[in-house]
Design brief:
- InterPro entries: Creatin/AminoP/Spt16_N, Creatinase/aminopeptidase-like, Creatinase_N, Pept_M24, Peptidase_M24B.
- This is Putative X-Pro dipeptidase.
- It comes from Thermococcus paralvinellae.
- The strands form four sheets. Strands 4-3-2-1-5-6 form a six-stranded mixed beta sheet, sandwiched between helices. A five-stranded antiparallel beta sheet has the order 11-10-12-15-16, with helices on one face. The chain has a three-stranded antiparallel beta sheet with strand order 7-8-9, covered by helices on one side.
- It contains ten helices and 16 strands.
- The longest helix has 24 residues.
- It is an alpha+beta fold.
Length: about 375
């Protein structure tokens, strides 16, 4: 975004300092979220070349240059017509500058294709490749004021989507029908790339099925990721259809308790593992430990799930929460036979904790 040029230049300068400190000559950025982080705009099949010293270069397809330059602060924009031209341009950039070590992000994210990596190695056999994802995430984990403003706006959109979920969920409705109504609402409110998961069976982060219907005596869990200016807020609610009792009631009570613990205990300087142990104690006391999926928090930002990812990356559980982080918690569901039970909000860690997805509603038709 050209109107926020100073923000993006500052990010680039910090990253270039990290490249120098790690003796990396330059970085080839192909992952979409990091491309957005530095350029300020979303672009399909991104290619961003960042030298440790000097100006960055963006490579786009022929005919895209003018629009890209309207949407980004970066002035060095080149075009390619054939895929082989793109790869050649990257190789020429490396050889012309005499680079020996190049950074790439090793990620499963969109556009971080192993195919590109393999072709790059064949074209540049003498170049050493370093994973710079730890460096980009080091920057991205701590959000600035502009990022927090966007996340707050995304939170309001997410809440609106959950309100529609409450209106839509009824026995006999399919997961897909419910998801469609939520996605529509999110997009109408400005979310360009919403993520919506609906599960009426015990599945975590479930892509909605058209043939699975809402049933009485079961949970329906709705996960929403709403974005604004590419920044996400993430929230989840589980709704019981009918009157919960026995194991279902215990699961709801336990989830409310661990949600409260997460909000109280996740403070700057506290390790995620410390809080995780307290959460596990609650489930053990309730006799629900066999249904608990470990990992209660993850970062939120340009991705719905990014570092620190205690839900996926076990070493991240030893990390300490820091001021400026934005976390989704409690992420891990209880996977009981009646369905997935989960309550998740997006929290900004500052002097206190700010919940940007406050929402309280239940369904028991």
């Amino acid at each position: 975004m050209r109107e926020n040029e100073k923000i993006f230049k500052k990010r680039l300068e910090k990253f270039q300092r990290l490249l120098k400190e790690n003796e990396i000559d330059g970085a080839v950025i192909r992952t979409l979220s990091t491309f957005i982080y530095f350029t300020g705009t979303k672009w399909l099949r991104p290619s961003l070349l960042i030298p440790a010293e000097g100006e960055p270069i963006v490579i786009v397809a022929k005919g895209e240059k003018e629009l890209f330059m309207e949407r980004s602060w970066i002035k060095n924009v080149e075009e390619f017509q054939k895929t082989e031209d793109l790869m050649a341009m990257v190789t020429v950039w490396i050889r012309k500058n005499g680079y020996n070590t190049i950074g790439m992000e090793f990620s499963i994210e969109r556009d971080a294709y192993i195919l590109f990596y393999e072709i790059f190695k064949r074209l540049n056999p003498g170049v050493e490749i370093e994973d710079v994802r730890p460096l980009t995430m080091q920057l991205r984990m701590i959000k600035d004021k502009w990022e927090l403003e966007n996340i707050r706006k995304a939170g309001k959109i997410a809440v609106r989507g959950m309100e529609v979920a409450v209106e839509t969920i009824k026995p006999g409705k399919s997961e897909l029908e419910i998801a469609a109504e939520i996605v529509r609402e999110l997009m109408l409110n400005g979310s360009e790339d919403p993520k919506v998961y609906v599960s009426a069976t015990p599945r975590a982060h479930a892509e909605p099925f058209r043939d699975i219907k809402v049933e009485r005596g079961k949970f329906v869990t709705v996960v929403i990721g709403a974005d604004y200016n590419n920044y996400y807020a993430n929230m989840t609610r589980s709704f019981f259809i009918g009157e919960p009792n026995g194991r279902s009631k215990s699961a709801i009570e336990a989830m409310e308790r661990v949600h409260q613990i997460a909000l109280e205990k996740t403070q700057p300087g506290v390790t995620f593992a410390q809080v995780e142990r307290e959460i596990a104690t609650v489930y053990r006391e309730k006799g629900l430990q066999e249904y608990y999926i470990t990992g209660y928090a993850h970062g939120v930002g340009l991705l719905i799930e990014e570092d620190p990812i205690t839900t996926i990356v076990v070493p991240h559980r030893a990390m300490k929460a820091q001021k400026g982080m934005v976390l989704a918690m409690v992420h891990a569901p209880l996977m009981i036979p009646e369905g997935a039970v989960k309550k998740e909000d997006t929290i900004i860690l500052g002097r206190g904790l700010e919940n940007v997805t406050l929402f309280d509603a239940s369904i028991s038709p």
